[in-house]
Amino acid sequence: MHLADWHTYQVLTKRSVRMMEMLNHRLKTYQDNQHILWGVSVEDKKHGLPRVEHLRSIPKVTKFLSIEPLLEDLGEINLKGISWVIVGGESGPNARPMQIDWVLSIKEQCRSANIPFFFKQWGGVQKKKNGRMLNGRTYNEFPIVTMNEPAPLETRLGWIEQLESI
After folding, report:
1. What pTM was computed for the model?
2. 65, 42 contact by CB (below 8 A)
3. Whole-number Å distance between alpha carbons of 62 and 33
């Protein structure tokens, strides 16, 4: 990911403490890579919101929240330092319903903080049927990520050769 900086990467985890430790030590040299977005899953107040604080404590990195499946009203979220928010409902046979008020609250918090908001889906047993429209429109907002031009083909092939020899 570090070498192929003409792509945008999303690294998402529920293991926020582990990510925080790695980015503050072993992966510290990659904190300046703005094309790598580091995110945490947030599903509820008890487990999800503490992950946001872990993520916010990591310096420099581009941070995002994947709030899915959204299982309850999260209330006010501290979005300081967050660059992007994705929201979606749970899908599958035992999917728990998501309330529109929960989604609108997050959308309004993003608006107030000038953070791009992406509404992924309503979820449910038939997620395609339920769609991804929120109040009559889709929300496909993304953060602005600076990407570089691809490395020359010879350079990229050299990297592949090096990796294959490991």
Report:
1. 0.87
2. yes
3. 8
Residue among 103, 95, 112 nearest 137 (CA): 103
- d(C-alpha 93, C-alpha 28), whole Å: 41
User: Can you point out the beta strands (E) in 54-107?
Assistant: 62-67, 82-88
- Cα Rg for the chain, rounded, in angstroms? 18
Q: Which residues are paired to 62 by β-bridges?
A: 37
Residue 75's closest CA among 43, 106, 115? 106
Residue 23 and residue 71: Cα distance in Å, rounded?
28
Domain ranges of the chain: 9-164
Q: Report the pLDDT averaged over residues 132-151.
A: 86
Structure tokens at 66: 């994947």
CA distance 109 to 80: 11
The encoded tokens of residue 120 equal 């992924």
Instruction: Pick from 18-22, 88-92, 151-155 the range whose average pLDDT is largest.
Output: 18-22
Angle (CA) 138 141 76, round 5° = 90
